[in-house]
Structure to design on (353 residues):
């Protein structure tokens, strides 16, 4: 099993998912707009995000040996990637919620709610999807442990499989902020990532590109055309479909790559997390300020542009630099400890001489 190279089409897939989440909230902010102005497909886009996370964790980490150092490296990288910009977004919403008369649409009020969101147990607005993501990162350590030594940890693997089967039997119950209700999407991505990294199945030919784009289009169109209801959208079938979409996208067939690896979509993919976190407050403020000056459709377009611009600055000023600094700080700290540990034996010898 080899480590996965950077796959440009997955950036574009993430960009599409982020943009569809944004457009799905147009009706929330501009209820007077025609129905076609707001596509109610935000849930499907989040499902793609979850499957992508599982795919990337499996394809990037599963083949690496697991010990205390690599596990700590993994957790530091995951924390640095998610939490700093998430915390800024939470505090931004808290601030908007405190403004008298503003009536922010997804407020976070009171110390209990603020604390819940700070400790990654909040469910206001788009923040609901971050807790299961973090919980998955922790559970993936157990999956990684099983994969690192299947014989030694076969009973742990059996226990995890039984827990997943029981969860599926009860149709993945629980609040949306808890992993058991969404674990099947992450694990579908993990299965896709392991299969891709193994290199055992690499379908070729134009049919792969057609299937990739066709399946992606079908998932969103089936919701728009109301061929299935909301409950069906979070079932096991959709989890398998999301994993399959990610797997096919990773093949980078020339047809699907032409769209998914295009610069605009890759750019949206790069800023996708900031766009996801900040688009509602930015579009809300745009609606409040622009709504009385420009026609509705123009206000919607401008609010989308402002959300993308704000996310770009968030990525370059907060998300990426803070992540890099935290990771670099951790690496320096780890290197200093290694030097100290290497020097300890010689120091003990000198003291006994």
């Amino acid at each position: 099993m080899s480590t996965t190279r950077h796959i440009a089409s997955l950036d574009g897939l993430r960009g599409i998912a982020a943009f569809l989440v944004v457009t799905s909230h147009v009706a929330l902010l501009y209820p007077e707009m025609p129905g076609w102005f707001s596509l109610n497909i935000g849930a499907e886009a989040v499902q793609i995000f979850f499957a992508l996370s599982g795919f990337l964790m499996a394809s990037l980490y599963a083949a690496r040996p697991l010990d205390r150092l690599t596990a700590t490296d993994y957790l530091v990288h995951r924390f640095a990637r998610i939490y700093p910009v998430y915390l800024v977004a939470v505090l931004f919403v808290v601030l908007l919620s405190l403004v008298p008369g503003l009536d922010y649409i997804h407020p976070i009020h009171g110390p209990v709610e603020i604390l819940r969101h700070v400790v990654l147990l909040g469910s206001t607005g788009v923040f609901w999807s971050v807790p299961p993501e973090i919980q998955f990162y922790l559970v993936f350590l157990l999956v990684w442990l099983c994969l690192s030594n299947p014989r030694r940890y076969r009973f742990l693997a059996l226990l995890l499989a039984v827990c997943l089967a029981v969860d599926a039997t009860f149709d993945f119950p629980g609040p949306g902020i808890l992993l058991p209700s969404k674990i099947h999407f992450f694990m579908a991505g993990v299965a896709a990532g392991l299969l891709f990294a193994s290199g055992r199945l690499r379908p070729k030919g134009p049919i792969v590109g057609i299937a990739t784009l066709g399946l992606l289009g079908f998932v969103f169109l089936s919701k728009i055309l109301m061929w299935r209801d909301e409950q069906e959208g979070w079932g096991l079938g959709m989890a398998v479909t999301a994993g399959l979409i990610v797997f096919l996208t990773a093949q980078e067939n020339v047809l699907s790559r032409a769209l998914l690896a295009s610069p605009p979509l890759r750019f949206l993919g790069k800023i996708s997390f900031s766009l996801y976190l900040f688009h509602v407050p930015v579009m809300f403020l745009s609606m409040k300020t622009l709504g009385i000056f420009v026609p509705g459709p123009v206000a919607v377009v401008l609010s989308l542009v402002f959300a993308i611009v704000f996310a770009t600055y968030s990525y370059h000023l907060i998300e990426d630099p803070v992540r890099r600094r935290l990771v670099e700080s951790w690496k320096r700290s780890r290197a200093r400890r290694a030097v100290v540990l290497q020097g300890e034996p010689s120091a003990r010898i000198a003291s006994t001489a």
